[in-house]
Write a structure and sequence with these properties.
The chain is 45% helix and 5% strand. The chain is mainly alpha-helical and 206 residues long. It is elongated.
Length: 206
């Protein structure tokens, strides 16, 4: 099990090292936002689409139902400055997170969910640090709705492409990103027993 698990409130890590426990996820959240800004930079998007995606991303992280409406330009501004690129606005959002109040893992989870959705919408490949994907997977598993919990209950979940696992019982594994999508209720493919452990005739859970 990866060393980062001892930092997580719901982990099975060493309970004797309470001085090492941290619940501040500002830097990890800001990193996900910066990664999302880089996805926007790399995508060939028109200004309106970039603005829409950036606004939807920020609204999702802030847990607002709708993006904030655009402010109309002042009548006195006859020669307005060029609008800040959408990616730069996300980077400014990341800076605000880093300088703000300590962040819970729930905020990190919303940032990851928004990052994965953004990547899907623009056809990009998401990438997350192991500590981030593991922390969010653990958080989502603990609060999963009944249909998802029925699949994962009584099992150990392991990322097949990252150094983390958690839980008790027979192993279920999946690459980290598809597992996050499943735990978010978006992925149709559930984590599976490792190849050598799968019973004959085992079928996908959907």
């Amino acid at each position: 099990m990866a060393d980062f698990m001892r930092y997580l409130p719901l982990s099975q890590g060493d309970r004797g090292r309470e001085s090492d426990v941290s619940s501040d996820w500002r830097d990890a959240t800001a990193d996900v936002i910066d990664r999302s800004a880089s996805l926007l930079d790399a995508a060939d998007l028109d200004t309106a689409t970039g603005d829409r995606l950036a606004a939807a991303f920020a609204a999702s992280v802030r847990r607002r139902r709708h993006p904030e409406p655009e402010r109309p330009a002042d009548d006195d501004q006859t020669a307005a400055a060029p609008r800040e690129p959408a990616a730069d606005r996300l980077r400014a959002f990341a800076v605000a997170i880093r300088l703000g109040q300590p962040a819970r893992v729930s905020l990190l989870s919303r940032a990851v969910a928004a990052h994965l959705l953004l990547a899907h919408e623009i056809g990009a490949e998401p990438a997350l640090p192991e500590r981030t994907s593991g922390a969010v997977a653990l958080y989502l598993a603990a609060k999963a709705p009944t249909p998802i919990r029925a699949v994962i209950s009584g099992h150990t979940l392991r990322a097949s492409d990252a150094d983390w696992e958690f839980g008790h019982g027979p192993m279920l594994e999946q690459p980290a990103i598809p597992m996050l999508e499943f735990l978010l209720g978006r992925g149709l493919e559930a984590p599976r027993p490792p190849t050598g452990d799968r019973p004959t005739g085992d079928t996908d859970v959907s």
